[in-house]
Structure formats: C-alpha cells, structure tokens
Design goal:
The protein is α/β, with parallel strands linked by helices. It has a domain at 100-268: Rossmann fold (3-Layer(aba) Sandwich), CATH 3.40.50. The chain has helices at residues 7-59, 63-68, 109-118, 137-147, 166-171, 173-176, 200-213, 229-245, 258-268, and strands at residues 73-74, 77-78, 124-129, 155-160, 184-189, 217-222, 249-251. A five-stranded parallel sheet has the order 4-3-5-6-7, with helices on both faces. Strands 1-2 form a two-stranded antiparallel sheet. It starts with 6 loop residues before the first helix and ends in a 10-residue tail after the last helix.
Length: 278
C-alpha cells in the first residue's frame, strides 16, 4: 500500500504563511497611505488658516505691522541690543503700553479713542458691570467694529454680570479687567450696580481711579433708571463724576434693544466709519 506524502501539507502551510504576509503587507500599505493623507490634509488646513489670517490682517493697513513692532516689549521696555551687541530678533509679546506721556486720564478720552480708531494697532475693549439680562450688545458692538469700522483684529471682552453690585467689579478687578490689558473699559452701571447705598459715590470714584491707573480709557454707561429716588440721586452722581473727569457717559434711557445700545455708544464716542478712497 502506497503511503501518503507529507509534501502537500508543507505546501499548504507555506501558502498560508505567504497569504498572511501578503495581507500584512497590504494592511501596512493602507496605514501608510492613510498617514500620508492625514499629513496632506493637515498641511492644506494650515495653509488655508494662514491665508485667512493674511486676508484679515490685510484689512487693517500694512502699516499695522510696522507700528506693532514697538509693542513687542521685553520687561516693559523696547527690545534693545543684547550683550553681544546684536539686536535680539526674538521679541516677547506684551500688552501695549501707551507710555507716561499718553495716560488716558491726562487728556480727553474721546481724543484717545479716536486716535486708537484711526491707528492701525488692534485694540482691546472690555465691558464690565451690571449688564441687562440676556443682553448681547457687546457682541453686536464687536460686529460693528469688524464691519462698519473695518477693525477685524480688535478684541471685545464681555464680563458683564447681570444683577452684580459695583463692589464686585472692584473686588475682582484683576480677573475681570486687568488681565486683558484693555485699551477701553466700558463700565455699565445699572440699578443693581448702584444699589451700594450711601457709599455708592465713594465706590464709583475708587473704581474709576483704579481703572485710570491701568492706563485705559474709561467709558461710563448708565442704564435706564427706575423710579426710586435713590437711583435718581446716584445717576446724578454718575453724571457729576463723568463731567468732572471728562469721561464719556452713555445714557441708555429710552433704548429698546441691543441695536439701540450700540448706536447710543457709537454716538456718544462720536465714532465715524473710515472714509474709503479709490
């Protein structure tokens, strides 16, 4: 009787191993192709983002790049020559410092804001205080800056807290304001903010003093007053301080919506859209 040969079995084992190697090679190739595709997609996304940023930066004049160089400050001073006598070409970004001779408290606030709006340097605007419930007028003001005034690089920070007392802003000044290094602070004063009582005027003056020490242009907002005698008296104190310090006061009496609030703010600051020249 003829015995069965073991060679066919060996051939079958080699075939299976060959098939597994082919499958493993195919899977490895597929992984490599996917990796290359992801890398290509990341490169395309990065190029698109850079192009978008270039387009936005182009809206504010090319002069902005040159003007922004002095704002790249090292420890509060302009970048000077290093120890080897060579200029340090790695500046550290720091918030804009207007300098000792340009303190907003020392000159007309409207003039300061107009110079800011006319210049190429992006600005930071902060809204704080007792905002109306469900209000979005800081966001609408930001949209107005981007479109009407062609300042897409300006930043608007909204830290309004409805029904917050004035002391809350003073107590959390660093967290709500100072850390953003604002160019302009819009202090919104509502019925709750002004409910400090007899110490309202003192608290308001202290807060304004602190804001002006930050070298920021201060704008006061008085929301529509209620019928209480106390609030009427405090509104009068707000007006008196605004007049004494030459601070713009945005009167929100009679406004109906956020669009009205934005218009009232732009009118108070006497903001004019840029003139388009051919």
């Amino acid at each position: 009787m003829t015995s069965h040969s073991s060679f066919p079995l060996g051939d079958s084992g080699r075939s299976r191993r060959r098939l597994l190697l082919i499958q493993a090679a195919a899977e490895e190739e597929e992984k490599r192709v996917r990796k290359l595709a992801r890398a290509a997609q990341r490169t395309a996304d990065k190029e698109q983002k850079e192009q978008t940023n270039d387009d936005l930066a182009g809206v504010q004049t090319e002069e902005a790049v040159g003007r922004a160089v002095p704002e790249l400050i090292d420890d509060g001073t302009l970048v000077e020559a290093n120890r080897d006598g060579l200029e340090d070409d790695t500046p550290r970004l720091r918030a804009f410092d207007p300098g000792e001779n340009e303190h907003p408290a020392g000159k007309n606030v409207l003039e300061t804001i107009h110079e800011l709006m006319a210049g190429p340097r992006p600005a930071t605007w902060v809204f704080c205080g007792d905002g109306p419930v469900e209000t979005a007028f800081p966001d609408q003001f930001a949209a107005e800056l981007r479109t009407t005034f062609r300042r897409p690089l300006d930043v608007v920070v909204n830290t309004l807290v409805p029904d917050s007392p004035l002391e809350m802003v003073l107590e959390h000044l660093e967290w709500q304001l100072a850390r953003f290094h604002p160019d302009v602070v819009n202090l919104v004063i509502g019925s709750t903010t002004s409910s400090t009582g007899p110490g309202f005027a003192t608290t308001l003056v202290t807060l304004v003093n602190q804001l002006q020490m930050l070298r920021t242009a201060v704008v006061l907002h008085a929301l529509a007053p209620d019928d209480s005698e106390q609030f009427q008296e405090q509104v009068a104190q707000i007006r008196s301080l605004a007049s004494e310090r030459n601070i713009p006061l945005v009167d929100h009496s009679g406004v109906h919506d956020d669009r009205d609030r934005v218009n009232r703010l732009c009118q108070t600051l006497e903001l004019q859209p840029p003139v388009h020249t051919d």
